[in-house]
Amino acid sequence: MAREDGQKTAERVVLRAAIGRYLHTEALRSGRLSSDRLALDLADIAPINRAFAPMVREQRFDVSEMAIATFLQATAYGKGLVLLPVVLAARFQESALLCRADSPIRGPQDLVGRRVGVRAYSQTTGVWLRGILADAYGVRSEAVRWITFEDAHVAEYRDPPFAERAAPGKDLMGMLREGELDAVIVGNEVPDDPSLRTVFPDPRASAESFWQRHGFVPVNHLVTVRRDLALRRPDVVHELVRLFRAAQQEAPPGARPPAPLAAGRAQLEPAIRLALRYADEQGLLPRRLDVAEVWEGLPPDID
């Protein structure tokens, strides 16, 4: 099937897409939900974060899931993407910060001066956790030795001087288990391993504190489209938003993105504003962004 370049197949625009497998995207991926306006040619990419760099660097897809930190960096570096108010992944982050069960670390404050591993300094889970560490525990990003394993998805970005690269051949969990790291930040898959524990003594209580302070669950992944597509075919963007939201409604209630994030642009803005502040404070952006820039290119009548 042809990509979206002005050609149509059976009167439907065909969009090359990279979207993760979730219960709330299954109706869309399976074709149970369809449209007479567009069809999705879905790339088989797992884990889905492998699609982010090709989308940012090459615009390989017309539609792609994307981590919020990656999107903010891509926007600041002028990569020509448009954010849709569609959340695909959101969660409280505290359970992703792990140390060994026998570690002397007793809480977040003990991370000062210690070695904390993270896949990339720009990883969204790390951005949220560093913000929480600074806001709630007084542990600023530069007070920790960040050990990274790969570059940001945005090629132009360079890590700050207090982040260093692990030696070639090393891996995150292996370094933690061998004592070469004091703690690590993992992604969505938290290992079920009795030799590990969370740095937060009570992750649920810390998450509740975040909720009481901010009133939302931190956003990890949303949906982006190429800017040229959004400007040329706003009707297609409208249809994409409709399809993603319809797919979410078909999922079991517990599998849908948490309220109020699924409600629309206005409900997402508190999370966007905080992500912007954290990204700026942590040296992830070459310049400050405001919320208007985050939504630039989105048809104004999409909520």
Word description of this protein:
This protein is α/β, with parallel strands linked by helices and 303 residues long. The protein has two domains: 13-91 and 217-294, D-Maltodextrin-Binding Protein, domain 2; 94-214, 3-Layer(aba) Sandwich (D-Maltodextrin-Binding Protein, domain 2). Helices cover 32% and strands 18% of the residues. It has ten helices and eleven strands. The chain has helices at residues 26-29, 52-58, 68-76, 124-137, 172-177, 203-214, 227-232, 234-250, 265-281, 291-294, and strands at 13-18, 38-42, 63-67, 81-90, 97-100, 115-118, 145-148, 163-165, 183-185, 196-198, 219-226. The protein has a six-stranded mixed β-sheet. A five-stranded mixed β-sheet has the order 2-1-3-11-4, with helices on both faces. Strand 1 (13-18), helix 1 and strand 2 form a beta-alpha-beta unit. Helix 3 crosses helix 9 (265-281) and helix 4 (124-137) packs across helix 9 (265-281). The longest helix is centred in the C-terminal third of the chain and has 17 residues, at 234-250. The chain is globular. The two termini are 31 Å apart. Mean pLDDT is 93; it is low at 1-10.
